[in-house]
Amino acid sequence: MFDLTKPSFAGRQRIATWLGLILLVAALYAGSAALGHLVGVIPSGVAAIWPSAGIALAAFLLWGPRIWPGIWLGSFLVSFWSMSPVPGVVPILPVPIIGLASASGATLQAWLGATWLRPALGMPPTLTGVSAVLRLLVLGGLVSCLVNATLSTTVLALGHFIPWSLFGATWLTWWLGDAAGVHLITPLVLALAHWQWRCLQVTPQQMMKCLVFLLALVATTSVLFGSWSPVARAHYPISYVLTPFFVIAALRHGLCGATLTPFVVSLFAIRGTAAGYGPFVGDGSLNETLLILDGFLIAAVLPTLTLAAAIQTEAQKTAALRASRELLSTVTEGISDVILLKDRQGCYLLINAAGAQYLGRPVSEILGKDDAALFPAEIARTLMANDSKIMDSGKGQTVEEVTETRGERRIYLSTKNPLRNDQGAVIGLVGVCIDITQTKQLEVQSQQLEALRQADMMKNQFVSVLSHELRTPLTIILGYGNVLTEGLLGPLAAKQQQAITKIVGSAHALLGLVNDLLDMGKIVAGRFSVSAQVFPFPDLLQEVMTSLGVLTERKAQHLIVEAPGPVPEVMADRRRVGQVLTNLITNALKFSPPNATIRVQVSSDRHWLRCEVSDSGIGIASHQLTGLFQPFHQADGSLTRSAGGTGLGLAICREIVSAHGGAIGVQSELGRGSTFWFTIPLAHPIVDDVDELAVA
């Protein structure tokens, strides 16, 4: 079981860290307070320089409200051992009560200052910008310090630790002492706690310059506030000798130097002034002298940090602008489209690498020139007219622009918008131009292809209509031809019988051509289909061979069927498969010499019937085999052309076989004959005995 009442190791570690941080802040607060008391205090124990106020505000800014016990504890301890009543006054409140009030005032003061400053300084706090610095020095150093000075001085007076006659002097000392502590310590702590450690990452040359500056600063402050110096008791204006150091620190060393320089000056100035030396020592008391020193330090820190912040802000803006320009350059140079910027007169202010590459000139030769200097006169007038229209109307526009350089004509889709200044006046234009030359060419080609497709469709429609129209008169010719041939209208003479036979033969040939055209029209239109049924393939083969008997007799050719065994039934369109057989056997007879033998070989595997038609004719060259099954394709050669044909038969055969899921092909060698083959599905797949046993 877990004991939930005990904190985990991580929880105990966080508590230990927090307690350590509380003790550290309390020690820092008490230690810096001891230094303030060494400088000088008024009779009530109030120090004229109070660095602990700067420590408290910095701690709240860095670690948040959780650090308040450290501030309260440090302040209470300091008040407990440092507070004492003015001689001759009997207090009515004990020292611990005064310590409680002082500790509460110090904690409240730091908390209020941090609350006011955190929106400006951020978390973690950084001295970025003039506004942040001014808020720190004014709100944190002057305004918030009114809290503890007012509360603690009032408690001291109410408790009879000071007479009411000393209330004003005590309050002023407390306020200026806290304000000086905040001005000197808080910016320095924030700088050292965060990014200002980068000040140490300098080159040896920069380090030498910093060392020379520091030595000169130490030497000057030693002369001003040293006991041995001849000007140790000079008049007040001599302190302005330090002004160049503050200015140089802000200009050359940024916020790093602006926070360190006043701190270094304060070390020597406070020590020397407390000892009675320096330009601020006069006829007044030590407390009055230290108050004057407080005013000097506050007056020195305020402009120094403000100037440094302003310089830093401008440097950041410059760096950001440089980075923005570099980013813009990187982006524009990496884009393949043309990006341009023109002034009111149409001269190029900016163009990227893609634009310069198209123009065939370096960027330096393009900038400052207008389109008239870069393009032919007619094209330049059109481009400049488009630009003027955009700048005059103040409205963006996207247009197609034709350009020409080095004899190359390109088409760009240009999107251009007016370029305005801060007052809204049009001072030029910015444009992005996309090369659409290839796209326009593709559009033209697409239009041409569409026109060709429409023309082809019209051609197919014309052929289909023509074929249908031809079938009617052909049917009538064949009908009457058969009537005459059979002698139904009376006997014919031998020559008449011969003429009618030729007429009927030619009509049959023409009808075959019309049927091929109709079939190809259906194929092109996507309306071609087959109607499969089960039938015995040998019966169909016998019908086709019988119908082609007349052709075999003409050239005394022989048609032989070979099969290794019984031929199974097939699942196919009987009429269409008969059309394939007729076409292949007819071609074999047509291109074979007299007395040749044409072999029809039939075989089958598990799922397909394969039929091969082999001849010993003229053959086909290898380079002509590829397009053999394409529409209107015929192998070249005198014998081929003399045999006639439209070149549609094999293309139709391919479509018929493909519609059955089968394949068709050819093996041929020029002068050695050809073998055409095709496959169609079996009606009942053949199963081997081995497969049957495996299934069982």
Tags for this entry?
696 residues; alpha+beta; five-stranded antiparallel β-sheet; five-stranded mixed β-sheet; 21 helices; disordered N terminus; disordered C terminus
Number of strands: 12
Major sheet strand order = 2-1-5-4-3
Helix content: 55-70%
Segments where pLDDT lies below 50 for 5+ residues?
1-5, 637-642, 689-696
Q: What structural category arises from helix and sheet content?
A: alpha+beta
Query: Could you tell me the radius of gyration in angstroms?
Result: 54 Å
Mean pLDDT: 80
Polypeptide structure, described:
The protein is an alpha+beta fold and 696 residues long. It is built from 21 helices and 12 strands. The strands form 3 sheets. Strands 2-1-5-4-3 form a 5-stranded antiparallel β-sheet, sandwiched between helices. Strands 7-9-10-12-11 form a 5-stranded mixed β-sheet. α4 (95-121) packs antiparallel against α5 (130-143). The two termini are 64 Å apart. Mean pLDDT is 80; it is low at 1-5, 637-642 and 689-696.
Task: Give the arrangement of secondary structure elements.
Layout: H1 9-39, H2 52-63, H3 68-82, H4 95-121, H5 130-143, H6 145-158, H7 167-193, H8 204-225, H9 243-274, H10 286-333, E1 338-343, E2 348-351, H11 353-359, H12 363-366, H13 377-393, E3 397-405, E4 408-420, E5 426-435, H14 437-485, H15 494-525, E6 533-536, H16 537-547, H17 549-554, E7 558-562, E8 569-572, H18 574-590, E9 597-604, E10 608-614, H19 638-643, H20 649-659, E11 664-668, E12 674-681, H21 689-695
Parallel strand pairs: 7-9
Antiparallel strand pairs: 1-2, 1-5, 3-4, 4-5, 6-8, 9-10, 10-12, 11-12
